[in-house]
Write a structure and sequence with these properties.
five-stranded parallel sheet; 7 helices; UDP N-Acetylglucosamine Acyltransferase, domain 1; single chain
């Protein structure tokens, strides 16, 4: 057994050469996780000023603070985009940064519909402030809406890193490729998975544990998974999907105003106004006071 740090280091260096997985590129390199985490927080501060700060912001300082934050985020975005695009040319990075800043007011307007959907969809919600400050779904949706814009403009790496940051923070996994309409609400949210090619309409409500996933993966002649293609379902306007339901397949369409019950496993389309339930489960209720050793109380 080798007992010297020099030998340990050399073995690691040898594995780097053999196995790869090392980010040693010259400038601009690759985007880093800390940079992306910082970007996400900067976006949240611009989307919801005063809600992601150490305290509220005075009205008199809002204009100046917003300009400072736009300048800081613009610098960071350009640097990260240069890394993602593997180019030191600032032109493309600057142009894409300008596009996202021009889009932020529209993203804010869309997020206000999500806040309203949460308020109307959850009887426990008392105020809009409570939703913005404490509902993990809003943070996940906000980051996804920004990341989706970057995804549509062919920025590599950054959108996926952003949504995985929010996945880590919230337990909600929404791919940046998913298209999501207005008034979107995820109640509780933990364990929700929404795949890359999902198309979700307006006024859709999901509960925790819902999966909108792929049914199967096509493979090439060498047995490798083919990339791309429509793999995930479409969910039309007004649909509600209850906890732990799984909906799979790129050709699957959940018709508008349908309700998918809890624990349903679905791999085919349903027409509008459908109620889909799982009737296989049977629950027995007995009187505990009358129990005997001969009675099976399992559920």
């Amino acid at each position: 057994m080798d007992l010297t740090p020099a030998r340990w280091a050399q073995k690691l260096i040898d594995s780097y050469r053999e196995d790869g997985g090392v980010n040693t590129s010259n400038e601009p390199g690759l985007p880093s996780k800390p940079e992306i985490a910082s970007l996400c927080l900067q976006f949240m501060q611009l989307l919801f000023p005063g809600y992601h700060d150490s305290g509220s912001i005075g009205k008199a300082e809002l204009s100046g603070l917003t300009l400072d934050r736009v300048n800081a985020l613009n610098d960071n975005l350009r640097r990260v985009f240069q890394c993602a695009l593997s180019s030191q040319d600032d032109v493309a990075a600057t142009a894409t940064a300008a596009k996202i800043f021009n889009e932020l007011p529209a993203i804010r307007a869309m997020l206000q519909t999500d806040v309203e959907a949460a308020y109307e969809g959850d009887p426990a919600a008392r105020t809009h402030d409570e939703i913005i400050l404490s509902y993990p779904c809003l943070e996940a949706i906000a980051i996804q809406r920004v990341a989706h814009f970057l995804y549509r403009h062919d920025i590599p790496l950054v959108p996926r890193m952003m949504t995985e940051w929010s996945h880590t923070m919230t337990g909600i996994d929404i791919h940046p490729g998913a298209s999501i309409g207005s008034h979107f609400f995820i109640d509780h949210g933990t364990g929700v998975v929404i795949g890359e090619t999902c198309r979700i309409g307006a006024h859709v409500k999901l509960y925790h544990g819902v999966t909108l996933g792929a049914r199967s993966f096509a493979k090439d002649d060498s047995g490798r998974i083919r990339k791309g293609g429509k793999r995930h379902p479409d969910v039309e306007d007004g649909v509600t999907i209850y906890p732990n339901a799984t909906v799979l397949g790129g050709e699957t369409v959940i018709g508008r105003n349908s309700t998918i019950g809890g624990n349903v496993f679905l791999m085919h389309s349903v027409p509008p106004n459908s109620l889909v339930s799982n009737e296989e489960a049977q629950v027995r209720v007995v009187n505990k006071a009358a129990k005997s050793d001969n009675v099976d109380y399992s559920i």
